[in-house]
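Issue 218. Parser rejects a valid record. Input:
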Amino acid sequence: MSREPSPPSDEHLVRRTLEGERSAFDDLVERHMGVVFAIACARLGDRERAEDLVQEVFLRAYLGLDRLREPPQFAAWVGRITRNLAISWLRHDSRMRRLVPLVDTEELPDLPDTHAKGARQQMESQEREATVWQAVLKLPPDEREAVLLHFSEDLGPTDIARRLGVHQTTITRRLQRALRRMRGLIEPMLRETAPALRVPPRVTTRTLAVIAGAAAMTAASKTALAAKASQEVAALAQAPAAAAGFVASLEAAWAALILGGQAM
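Output the parser choked on:
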């Protein structure tokens, strides 16, 4: 019996994109959207801002793809861009660092909810989701990131470590610390509600529309936008920046208040 062909690797999709096949980048977006969204949520602590951030991340990745020196490392590369752009948004006014508004796209309607629930069931579900989300927000960003990737994207420590570019032992320790903080009723609730924390379909749709809009720009406009994006990508793709100054102080104070001074 013949086996189904394996899906193309990230490296293959990157090379096809660089050769002018935009649909190959669409495949990369759909493959990595969930992880990028989880990282954005973990770093920003706000799902709406995370939806905006992922569009900016993939637009920058598309325009600056020629700066990726090791195509097999696309997952870790786009993860670093996500983390560092989120830190930048926390430090500065995020409205001043957006490229998506420069791309001409048609307004897309929200996709219908194909899993609509009854009013009572929906209310109970929303209450559980709110409880879980508040518990997740109380975690330090690194642990929050690991928890979201583990539960909402169903990734094990090895996959999380590969995508974030850190050692597997580090991820295992983060998950263990996070689950100790969330012990009791929250962990079972997290397992139950994790699917609701995943990226909404509309975000993928809008991101693909942004990429299509960028690809359709005139040569001069695309070159100008790519030049701006490439400058940022070079900096954002560096090793994850440690939060410093105001952000570090804010995170330390927040953790001390919420976690009762527990060691990170």
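Fixed in the parser; the record now loads. Residues 108-124, 241-264 have pLDDT under 50 and may be disordered.
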